[in-house]
Structures are given as C-alpha cells and as structure tokens.
Queue: 2 jobs
Job 1
Amino acid sequence: MLNLNFNLIIALLVAITVHEFAHAYSAYKMGDPTAKLAGRMTLNPLPHLDLLGTLLLFFVGFGWGKPVPVDYRNFRNPRLGAVVTAVSGPLANLIVAAIFYIPLKHWLFGTPLAGLFAAIVQLNIILLIFNLIPLAPLDGSHFVTSILSRFNPHMAYQFVRYSPIVLFSIILLEHVLNFPLLIKLIIFLEEYLLLLFNLLL
C-alpha cells in the first residue's frame, strides 16, 4: 500500500507539473510573460499544486493543477495564443504518457519500476482527458470560448461564468446518485488511448 501511495504521489506531481509548465511556457512563447513573472514557468511542482484539484485526483480519480495566469492582451495573436496555450497542457500529458509507456511495455513490465511508470502513464492520460472537457476552468473550455467570442462575446462571458457550476454539479451529482458517468467516460477513453499506445508504440 505504501508503494502504491508513493507511486501515485510521484505520478501526480509529474502529471500536474508538466501540464502547468507547458501552459506557462507556451504562453510565454506566444508573447505573454505573466506566468513566467509569477514563477509558474518552472518544473518545481509546488507552485503548480491546487488544493481542491489535487484532493479530487486522489479521492475521485480526476482533478487539475493551479490555473496558470494568462493575460490574453499580451499575445501577438490573442485567439491563436489562447488556443495554443490551452492545448499545450493536455499535449504535454500525452507526450509524457507516451514516453513512459514505451519502457513500461518493452523493458520494465514485471520489474519494481513498473508500478511507478504505469501510474505516471495513467495519471497523465486521466489529466489529459479530464482537461479536454469543454467546461471552465478546464482547458477544453478555451476552444468553446474562442468560438463563442467571435459571434457572441456576451454568450462567451456567460459560458465562462456559469460552466464551472455545471462541472461541479456533475461531479457532485455523480457521487450523490452513485452514478459515475463522467468517471466511466474517462475510463473508456483511457482504455482506448492505451490500446492505441499498444498498437503504435
């Protein structure tokens, strides 16, 4: 049990750190130094940990890191900068999951390191999938906001304002009604992605 907890903690730190670092780095490269100035362009996990998001990862199975501060006005191309910054976090998790999956599959299976590598792969995939849900404050919401802001800025504002309530209501109802639809969806997509990894890597 201690080994499982150790593996989970290390995997959690890796997944959240690379995710939030990728947001900060991509925002900086797109012209916004806000995250860098706030000390978030770092591979030190401590500045990236969000209390609620971390607790949910441990006890519910999905969660998030502390949102990276971004000032869209600094982007050379605000719409492109917003999309690139949003997608960079999940993309970083995908890359890390693939990198750790290769030695796990070919060399480490059945060894003492297998549990740690498997946990890193699993948590990076979970963070990837969960953050692509198109509800604020998750990364997927930026795609919706980018589209809405072109046609109806007020609707985009309302979406950002109220979609977090929808997200937390879904999570709460899942546990009150004991009907883990969101968890089942994440597990289904995780298994599908692992199948692709197994075929391609």
Job 2
Amino acid sequence: MTFLVNGKNHIAEPWAGQCLRTFLRELGCFGVKKGCDAGDCGACTVLVDGDPVHSCLFPAYRARDRTVTTIEGLAYNGELHPMQEAFLQAQGFQCGFCTPGMIMTASTLNQSQRQDLAWALKGNICRCTGYGAIENAIRGVRQIETAEAGNACGRRRHDLARSALERGRFRRFRGPNCRIRPVSGAELAGQRLPTVRHADL
C-alpha cells in the first residue's frame, strides 16, 4: 500500500485493525500524540485530504492513496505555517501536549468558524485549561514582547497603571510578612488557631 504522508510516499502495510495514529508514529511522525484513544481529546489530530480527523479512530488502511499531513508537515520549505507562527507569537500553549492537535484543527478553520471557537474546537481538549491563550493565537493576538538591546522584557511593577496600585492590588511590605517559629503539640492542644482572611491583608 502507498501512503502520502507530509509530501513523501511511504510503501507500508498497516497491521489489521491498526489506527492511523500508531501507523504514523511508526513512520516517525511523533508530533501525533496519544491522548485518550477514544476520539475525545484531539491530541492525535491530523489532516486527511485537508480535513482534520482523530487519528486514534481513523483506520490506517483508509489513508491509502490519500494525502496525510501531520504537524511536522504543516511547515513548508522551512517556514512555519501561519497558524504555527500565531501559536508561537501568542504563546498559545502551556504544557504543549495538546498543541499539535490544536494547530492542526485551527489551521483548517475559516473566518465564520472562528467566530464560535467553542464549537469549532469541541474535538480538542486542553487539559491545562489554556483556552485563553489558544483563542488569542487563533485570533492573531500577540502575547510576546520584542527584545531590544538595553531594555528588559516583561512588565515591571513601575509599568503598571496607577489605578491598579491605588486599588491595592499590589502592596509593598516593609520587612517580613510573618515570623515562623516551631510550635509544640502541647501549645496547640485545645487552642483555636486564628484565621486570616484575604480581606484582612
């Protein structure tokens, strides 16, 4: 059987009942992740003839004589795909395990589908709950700063709006916030420990 994976022909025979995910990993496409093995998480998403599919559910033999694209094949001539670049610029990932599947699905979305991302990405789960950064990436919102010689990257306390400081969101303490000392069990017997609420700080 002939399989076209990331622009290269492979002559191989998948074993009976083999899913496309394990077949692609045997071909060296390790960006195809094993997540749930039930078609729920989308970590194994690849494109078959341009359509995203969960490769853990897709029989390998059905990919014969079809075009299969994994995250490794999304880039072209050494240049990242625009969606890969968008995820990089927006830092649209936390642990990164779901990222290949998210990018594969997001790369196929048209403008109308991007209006309802909750529906469009219903087959992809981020277990780190990083959907804000993922949404920013898909919408093209940049989250990283450009490094310039002599300027530090990152927000400093002095760059924050004065109103944030006036509302008490950031407080400067002079000296230690508390003292820690060893306490014996006899001291604690029958005592009620004081409760400190966030509002008291």
